[in-house]
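Could you help me review a protein record that somebody else here produced? What it holds is a sequence and that sequence's fold in token form. I need someone to confirm that the token line plausibly describes how this chain folds. Take the sequence as given and treat only the tokens as open to question. This is what I was given:
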Amino acid sequence: MNGKNHRYIIFAIIWAITLGVWAGEMFGQVRQSSKDHYAKLLLLEAKPEPGYEKLDSMTFPLSDWGPLMSWKLLRTYYATKPFEKFPSLGVPANSSKRTRAELDYLQDLQRTRTREELAWSLKLASIYYNPMIVNPADKQYVANRENLFYLGRSLGGWFRREELPLTEDLLSKVVHDATVYIVDFKLKYARPRPYVLEPALKVDQPLPHGAFPSGHSFTSYVNAEILIRLAPDRKDDLLNAAHEFAWSRELLGVHYPSDSEAGRVLAHDFVKSLFENEQFMKDFQTVKNEWAEKRIK
């Protein structure tokens, strides 16, 4: 082996180690989730099984709702589409074969998840936009606004709140509207959380609102679909980022896979309706101009 080849091999080894360290830091040793479980579960019967009327009568009780209910009082900036105009998504019956398969899937995730995956899921659980934090003097204000940019972090170092004030304003209004809608969706479907139907699923703290659809899934896919229209060349990266948010909720055992899928479906319809709003289109154009100036290809 000559000296030149030897140097190339050493360089390759160092580069491989560097990539491994980088991947570990970026992904925290989290497995790549498969999306085909959604399609497989959809093939199973969602209708109630005979003889389980009491189980199927279980819903998320209105009395257990927490602070999220206050979001229902908020007005939207752009969204005007009536809730009844959104696709009617049938929630699998509590006693159905599909729900049982979903619960078994979630139990398997809990049995096999690593400490790194649990930590990663808990981190993502804390990354969301709270529309009630609007005072710049609030100590949580900056972090809350920066959460709007987390999903698009793969776009590069230029994609930062400090660099994109018009983008920040648009995303804050869009995700604000999405959170207003998620309350009504959850109230409409009132699906009990998976750990209620399956006590073997363990969660640190029960959540004070219904399961269907997943709010993290819905708002993440809304965020992703807005960014995709600004950077269509990064569509796969952005959709994968939204999927990670949705899947992390399954890893935690707080959402059924069908909650995640419902969030994705409704998000697509929600964003499509925004592009029928004149004020949104004006604001979106200003953001496109901002990106034309700031984006690094």
Q: What stands out?
A: The chain has one domain: 31-294.
